[in-house]
Amino acid sequence: MKGIYRADHVGSLLRPPELLQARNDFSEGKISRERLVEIEDASVLKALDLQKQAGISVFTEGEYRRSGWSTAVRDAIEGLVPVEANPTSAILGQWQGPHAEEATNVLRTSPGVMGAPMAVGEPIRQVRRIAGAEGAFLAAHSPGPWKMTIPGALSAGGQLYRAGITDKVYTRAEFGEGIAGMLKREVEALIAEGCSYIQLDSLHYVERLTYDVIRERMIADGEDPDRYLDELIAIDNAVLDVAQAGGVTVGMHMCRGNNRSAWHAEGSYEGIAEKAFQQLHVDRFLLEYDTGRAGGFEPLRFMPKDRMVVLGLISSKEPALESVDDLRRRIDEAAKYVPMENLAISPQCGFASTAMGNLLTWDEMRRKLELVVETAQKVWG
After folding, report:
1. What is the pLDDT, as a whole number, of residue 214?
2. Span 265-293, pLDDT tens digits
3. What is the pLDDT of residues 190-225, one digit of tens each?
4. pTM for the full model?
5. Which domains, from first to last, does the chain contain?
6. How many Cα atoms sit within 13 Å of 277 on the Cβ side?
7. CB of 105 within 8 A of CB of 141?
């Protein structure tokens, strides 16, 4: 049965210090994989308890078994080769904001936690499930309905595709299709395990296609952004349709980058709203709206009447707590375009899209989650 989930969150949570230390120790050969898994399990139980105590509607593992939001795909395949760190992505852009330097240097400063940079250099071979350990643990231990976050095929593929290396083996389209096939099989397995909610995460809708700097770069490189949007929708729908067939709640989170409280892009949803909102086969869109970087609510006029919009009004990047009254006013503004009964609330992104996390404390994160729940209760009861 599909859930309403008025108090939602994007998925990732700050890692406890003992988990970060364990991941570093494992990379240096100081502890066994079995010991790392024990610490991961204990940390996930802590995260589940946090969500339960905060009153969140649906539970995640916090992405604790990943070094980043998209690396579940990387960790499931062979055919990767080490590459030089590339802090400014050719597909996306450079980190921005007050903490941009820290975000740029996180791979260099925390290699044991984040993992070495890799790219596909050989035909890929899937050797394990993408989210098998996560799904099995949540099926056994989640105190309520649980959600699995998985990267969109082109978002995951873009992080593993390196010009001059990967293009000797695959075109971008071929590589994306291969990852999409893996994701479809993973969705089927998760639903069989009892997953209630599949969420696809993508950087490419707003970070590539609504940010003028990247859009202009695409055009200069001979890419057609409008055609790319069509291709992006088609490849994501191939995965989303499997989730829809399984009868679970299906969501899409559109992100502008999230690493050490920095971001990549800014720009309204206007340029992609009509096609993406109307053509993507989802039940709910999780949209960033914590700052003016996302523009106004006007693009929500294109939202179909059977979709829910999860308003990401609460910052996962900054520790200051938003005012409940201000949040309620912004929800009222959004309700001019989407009926109130079709709205929900969440933080604008994960708290730790990369393992090192944003620049908040555990208690500050807890208070943010409690604020999500408090606001949802006051607005929807």
Report:
1. 87
2. 999 999 999 999 999 999 999 999 999 99
3. 999 999 999 999 989 998 899 888 899 999 989 999
4. 0.95
5. 17-380 (3.20.20.210)
6. 22
7. no
* Residue 42: C-alpha distances to residues 22, 61, 194 (Å): 12, 11, 21
Residue holding tokens 């695959």? 170
Q: Say whether pLDDT at 368 is over 90.
A: yes
3-class DSSP string for the chain:
CCCCCCECCCCCCCCCHHHHHHHHHHHCCCCCHHHHHHHHHHHHHHHHHHHHHHCCCCECCCCCCCCECCHHHHCCEEEEEECCCCCCCCCCCCCECCCHHHHHHHHHHCHHHHCCCEEEEEEEEECCCCCHHHHHHHHHHCCCCEEEEEECHHHHHHHHCCCCCHHHCCCHHHHHHHHHHHHHHHHHHHHHCCCCEEEEEECHHHHHCCCHHHHHHHHHCCCCHHHHHHHHHHHHHHHHHHHHHCCCEEEEEECCCCECCEECCCCCCHHHHHHHHHHCCCCEEEEECCCHHHCCCHHHHHCCCCCEEEEEEECCCCCCCCCHHHHHHHHHHHCCCCCHHHEEEEECCCCCCECCCCCCCHHHHHHHHHHHHHHHHHHHC
Q: Tokens for 193, please give them.
A: 């395990």
> Cα(380)–Cα(188) distance, rounded to whole angstroms?
33
Fill in the amino acid letter for 317: K
Q: What is the pLDDT of residues 141-163, one digit of tens each?
A: 999 999 999 999 999 988 899 98
